Structure formats: C-alpha cells, structure tokens
Amino acid sequence: MEETKVTLNENERAAAEAVFGERLPLAERYVQHLATTGIERGLIGPREVPRLWARHVLNCAVVQEYIAPNVSVADVGSGAGLPGLCLAIARPDLKLTLIEPLERRVIWLNEVVDDLGLENVTVMRSRAEQAVGAVDADVVTARAVSALVGLLDITLPILRGTGELLALKGRSAAEEITKAKKKLNRYGARETEILTAGADLLEEPTTVVRVRL
C-alpha cells in the first residue's frame, strides 16, 4: 500500500503538541502505521484515515491525565493499540501491557512497538480472562470492548482487588453505569464516576468511566 500522509489541522497539532510534547514524532509515526499497515491488516477501516488524530489517537491519549506517574497499565482488547500505544507514547513513565487475543493483531502491535522503540510496552497474546494473575496492573484501560456490565468481568479481576478501571465510553456512559450497579457492588467498587478528558484540548472531549476498587 502506498504511504498515506495523515496531516494534522491547526487545532489537532496544538492538542498533539500538548499531549505528546517532544514525543510527537513517535505519535506521527504510529499514525502512519495505522493509516497503512493498520488498514492492510484490517485493524482499522480506511474511512477512519481522515479522523485518525481527532477520533482515535488524541481521543485516547488525553486519558493519560487521569493516570498517576510510574504505574503499570493493562490495556484490554488492545486491537490497534487504542488506547494502549497512545498512552505509551505520551507517557514513557508508564509500564504498558497490551492484552490482545488475535494473533494478527499481536503481530502488528509487536511490529509497531519495535519500530517505535517503545521499551515500556509488552504485548501479550491472551484473552483478558486468562491474563488474570499473569499481569500486575494498577490501572486497566479498555475502549470499544464491551458494555460496562460485561467489561467489569474481564477487567476488574486483573486488578486483584485494588486499582482502577478507565473505560473510554460515549454518551451511554451514565446508562451503562446504572445497568452495572449490581455487578459494581459485587466487585466492591468504592467509587464509580464519569470523567471528561481533554476538555481544554479537543473539540469533542473523551468520556471516561472510572471504577475504583
């Protein structure tokens, strides 16, 4: 596939510079992977190319504002590295484990990690349920994996009783929390809240459901 040049508009560049700082060239290289081999391998649809920055990369990267320094993060159902690789690029202090069951995605993720030289990332081929006990994580992230009521079962056990889930959600966040109330109580969640990430940077800020154990 010919190289697809994905450009940043003025607002996107300002946001990207604020989020990625001196590591912006790594983020740009990652976006090129998404726009080329990511499409070739079926990790992302070709129609997403014009909005890779706004809808995907920046949408994910701004979540880093809710992650403490120097912690371990497990990204469940990492797919094309959203949000895992975005966080790893923006925050080299974090230790990321990308959990992904499909081999073709794991191969692609490893290729990108190697190309970008991301020493703070480990890619694990596994279902989330099978990763319990094999991953140490202070924070679990997930995007476009499942409704919250189902997501809790494949994310909270990884935390082993302490830590937090950051689930990237949309307009249904409040409704999903309501439907998950019983399960949240069953897992002993001490706090569940809806957060907004990137409010000062993005035209459409990111909605995050944070569940603290």
From TrEMBL:
<feature type="binding site">
    <location>
        <position position="77"/>
    </location>
    <ligand>
        <name>S-adenosyl-L-methionine</name>
    </ligand>
</feature>
<comment type="similarity">
    <text>Belongs to the methyltransferase superfamily. RNA methyltransferase RsmG family.</text>
</comment>
<feature type="binding site">
    <location>
        <position position="143"/>
    </location>
    <ligand>
        <name>S-adenosyl-L-methionine</name>
    </ligand>
</feature>
<feature type="binding site">
    <location>
        <begin position="128"/>
        <end position="129"/>
    </location>
    <ligand>
        <name>S-adenosyl-L-methionine</name>
    </ligand>
</feature>
<dbReference type="GO" id="GO:0005829">
    <property type="term" value="C:cytosol"/>
</dbReference>
<keyword id="KW-0949">S-adenosyl-L-methionine</keyword>
<keyword id="KW-0489">Methyltransferase</keyword>
<dbReference type="Pfam" id="PF02527">
    <property type="entry name" value="GidB"/>
</dbReference>
<dbReference type="GO" id="GO:0070043">
    <property type="term" value="F:rRNA (guanine-N7-)-methyltransferase activity"/>
</dbReference>
<comment type="function">
    <text>Specifically methylates the N7 position of a guanine in 16S rRNA.</text>
</comment>
<keyword id="KW-0963">Cytoplasm</keyword>
<keyword id="KW-0808">Transferase</keyword>
<feature type="binding site">
    <location>
        <position position="82"/>
    </location>
    <ligand>
        <name>S-adenosyl-L-methionine</name>
    </ligand>
</feature>
<protein>
    <recommendedName>
        <fullName>Ribosomal RNA small subunit methyltransferase G</fullName>
        <ecNumber>2.1.1.-</ecNumber>
    </recommendedName>
</protein>
<dbReference type="InterPro" id="IPR003682">
    <property type="entry name" value="rRNA_ssu_MeTfrase_G"/>
</dbReference>
<dbReference type="InterPro" id="IPR029063">
    <property type="entry name" value="SAM-dependent_MTases_sf"/>
</dbReference>
<keyword id="KW-0698">rRNA processing</keyword>
